[in-house]
Amino acid sequence: SQEKNRYVIGVSQCSDDEWRTQMNKEIRREALFYPGVEVDIRSANDDNRKQTEDIERFIRRKVDLIVVAPNEAEAITPVIEKAYAKGIPVVLVDRRINSDQYTAYVGADNYEMGRQIGHYITTRLEGKGNVVELTGLKGSTPAADRHRGLMDVLSRTPGIQIVASADAGWFQKSAEQAFDSILTCQPKIDLVFAHNDRMAAGAHTAALRHGRANKMLFVGVDALPGKGLGVELVANGILDGTFIYPTGGDRVIQVAMSILEGKKYQRENLLSTAPVNRQNAHVMQMQTDHIATLDGKIEKLNSQLDAFLLRYSAQRMFLYACIII
Ligand code: FRU
Predict the structure, then answer these.
(1) Taking CB atoms and a 6 Å cutoff, what residues make up the pocket around ligand 1?
(2) What is the mean pLDDT, run by run of 10 residues, along the chain of 325 residues?
(3) Span from the CA of 301 to the centroid of ligand 1 (angstroms)
(4) In this structure, how many other beta carbons lie within 10 angstroms of the beta carbon of residue 48?
(5) How many beta carbons lie within 10 A of that of residue 70, not counting itself?
(6) Strand 241-243 and strand 275-277: pairing?
(7) 18-31 and 281-324 are packed helices; what angle lies between their axes, rounded to 10 degrees?
């Protein structure tokens, strides 16, 4: 007989992209280690209304716990407070809300990342130069926090000016368009800091079109492994550097399960970052390639186990039928 689910975990992702795909994969895989746990993952495609509906649906379904990466803090806070008030534990991941009505947070400290990036920029420009900042969606907390951390460092470096800044909403195309018009009115740009690697890549494309790509440095955030993603962009010299923004899907499920099973857990679970530059990008690629091979093997083992269990239950049914006859 099929084991009845002990727990249903609703996961509400704000967006659908490589970073989220990796996190969702880690969430699903980690959940396999807890029998009887179902995860229901929904993506809001960067739409506050859709995310509110997704969370409303989880409340109606009476899920046991909600994991949520809120698209924009202000818009998503009320529905999260509503779920929390109904007694559903809420684990915030990567993005925060404007309220303390949540159970735990799992993700990096984006303010601290902004500061580290500020120091990186100061070192790379030797304390002097013109910088352009392409921010993530302004209403999302990682964008606000990365900006604040960056400014706290750069405002103390008088030789460095932010000559232009634009909200590119985390998207590659928007960054490409925004940077295209910035290029036409800024004759001297030494470095572009984009709040994620996708936007940094978009800015690079625009700079190539203007014949200015090799006159400036591009810095991003995320450092995802895989074809055409952050680590490879650094290894190929397209980006000067990027910072690991850990997806931590396994940690999310571990915290969620501790909450559900009444075990001890930490409310703030901060995941660490590290810079990726030309010196370490190749080593990182070797390691992440190896991890990807191991991941593939775990997935293969898992599907073999499923096939085996299916055959086993069919044989058992057959045996019962024989006994009854
Ligand atoms: C993925 C993403 C990342 C970024 C993070 C911020 O959806 O846009 O690129 O670092 O969200 O929340």
Answers:
(1) 15, 17, 19-20, 94-95, 136, 140, 142, 170, 196, 221-222, 245
(2) 77 98 96 94 98 98 98 98 98 98 98 98 98 98 98 97 98 98 98 98 98 98 97 98 98 98 98 96 94 89 88 87 81
(3) 31
(4) 17
(5) 30
(6) antiparallel
(7) 40
Q: Scanning the structure block, which residue is given the tokens 């269990």? A: 309
Which region, left, alpha or beta, applies to residue 32 given φ > 0 means left and ψ of -120 to 50 means alpha? alpha
pLDDT at 295: 87
For ligand 1, the distance from its centroid to the CA atom of residue 94, given in whole angstroms, is: 8
CB-hemisphere CA count at 13 Å for 94? 24
What's the first-to-final CA gap in the chain, in angstroms? 20
Torsion-angle region of residue 107: left (phi > 0), alpha (psi -120 to 50) or beta? left
CB 174 within 8 A of CB 137: no
Rounded distance, CA 49 to CA 64, Å? 23
- pLDDT score of 4: 66
C-alpha span between 33 and 26 (Å, rounded): 12
In this prediction, residue 276 carries a pLDDT of 98
Query: Token pair 């962009």 is at which residue?
Result: 233
**What is the atom index within ligand 1 of the atom nearest the CA of 140?**
12
Q: What is the largest CA-CA distance in the chain?
A: 89
Find the DSSP H helices in 43-134: 48-60, 73-85, 110-124
In 178-254, the DSSP E strands lie at 191-194, 217-219, 241-243
Q: At what angle do helices 172-185 and 197-209 cross, to 10 degrees?
A: 40
The confidence score (pLDDT) of residue 3 equals: 56
pLDDT at 1: 40
